[in-house]
Specification:
The chain is α/β, with parallel strands linked by helices. The protein has seven helices and ten strands. α3 (97-104) crosses α5 (143-154) and α6 (202-220) packs across α7 (222-231). The structure holds adenine (ADE).
Length: 233
Amino acid sequence: MSWRASVITLFPDVFPGPLGASVIGRGLETGAWSLDTHFLRDYAHDKHRTVDDTPAGGGAGMVLKPDILAAAIDDVAPADDPRPKLVMSPRGVPLTQKRVRELASGPGAVVVCGRFEGIDQRVIDARGLEEVSIGDYVLAGGEVAAMVLLEAVVRLLPGVLGAQESHEDESFEAGLLEYPHYTRPQVFEDREIPAVLTSGDHGKVERWRRSQAEALTAARRPDLWAEFKREKP
Ligand code: ADE
């Protein structure tokens, strides 16, 4: 059984979108992963197919109704479905490469895309939904966020990236941002490739890349740098 993504959304037509391109799309064709989308409105029970209502306590915007979303989740993922159930939300726990790796090592994920002001808290609690954020900014809905999460996971699945692409050197894998890259031409607009990279001394290249990665992380991401120093003092 391949890694299975089930997405619950009000905009099923936007999938697979970018997930149908390049190596991620090829993985879909070759069966390294599968994607099924479920239109939330299909689970509404009135003639207007209503999925939202005004917030209890007043205020702006609309809230996704718990009964409709619960019906969708129960249909897509019955109680014995082992996959984690995620809901994309700016209130969620920030997504990290660590969580991405964990998800990739499991059987798949059920991903709910929010819209409107929010989702009734009772369905989040009752179905044990894990709220996931892709960053500290607000999107119009969870669809693009779901695609970000799925792309990050799927590229780690066996058979998706070619054998020569290793994940070891990537940003975050060692707790550091990645070192800078160069390729020919040797001189570009008066800028040379750093001499160490063409020296042929692999040990020197390794040490240079490491020091570049550390300096970049310290400058750009003091949070990651502090964590790195804590783990490898
Ligand atoms: N939906 C709206 N904004 C979001 C964000 N930052 N992360 C995940 N889902 C979202």
